[in-house]
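Hi F.,

I've been meaning to write this up properly since the lab meeting, where we talked about keeping a consistent format for the predictions we share between groups. The idea is simple: the sequence comes first, exactly as it goes in, then the structure tokens exactly as they come out, then a line or two of notes. No screenshots and no reformatting. I'm using this chain as the first example so we have something concrete to point to.
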Amino acid sequence: MSRHRSARVTRRRVLGLGALAAVPAVTLAVREAGSPDAPDTAAAPAPSASSRPSPSTTALRVVTHGGGPVPFVAGKAMLGSYLGLKGKTLQQSLLLRRQQLGRDQRIVNLFYDWTDILLSAAPVLPARSVPMISWAGTKYADITGGASDALIARAGRRVARYGRPVMLRFSWEMNGSWFAWGGAKNGGHSDGYIASWRRVHKIFRDVGARNVSWVWSPNWNSSPTADWNTTQSYYPGDAYVDWVGVSGYNLHRESPAALFDGVYQQFAARKPIVVTEVGAVDRGGSTKADWITVFGKWVQDRPGVGAVIWFDTDTHPGYDEKWRIDTDPQALAAYRAMAAGERFSG
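Output, unedited:
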């Protein structure tokens, strides 16, 4: 894929869509979302099905505080997006969504490559909007051996000078096989990931970047499926994480519970949860609107969820699905209703 040269790397840069054709669809159905997806089997309910929590989910103890400089507020969920709308700048896209929803984005997801200067030419965001920096990683050895210390320190100083609280989603979806910082591309183990994360964390602290909420964000399922590649095996430890994130997309009629309950049940008792990437396929009629409604109910029923970031874009070449929230009037109405709810008043 060609790179759009800017300090903020668009999601298309890190997805590697060109490799999709070489991978069996049953194994990797959503490289567009940077994720493998479960095959389209009867195990996943239709989008219009109820997503009420199971008894085990209802009884799950969840955190009531935390989040670091971007705090978790019990009972509230911040609602934001990655915005990449065809023919519009980020500022124009933010204005359009404010007009449609009657509110600003609480979180704006910004993608950066490993060697980019973080927050250079930082966009002007609404007063209450928090940037989430999705910072692509690199091979573990490039970090753990110290060769990247100066680059990391530069990044930390840039974030510190920004002054406002930020969320930093470093080396996301590490339990997948598609990124250079995944265990599958680093000898089939996760130890190097944990060591890399902790080194970056320490350097940021050493240079004074105390305005960072650290977002550790696996994919909703692991590829390949192996003992060394479980979600838990990559966890850096409670002292190094402020929020636990998760990416998941409705591509094969997966319910929100099918996508997100695994991570929620594993980590909601330890850290607040942020759905860092989510979108839904439009199959015509009210299918997308129905899924958005069910997703909103899923969040309502999971008190440990403190933030949701929609993948709101239609600018991905080579992929027909338009993830933006206004692909049809019904979808926009459903999203607007979700955004207006008390749960998303954070």
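Notes:
The chain has nine helices and eight strands.
The beta strands are 78-84, 107-112, 130-135, 166-170, 212-216, 243-250, 273-280, 305-313.

If this format works for you, I'll send the rest the same way.

G.
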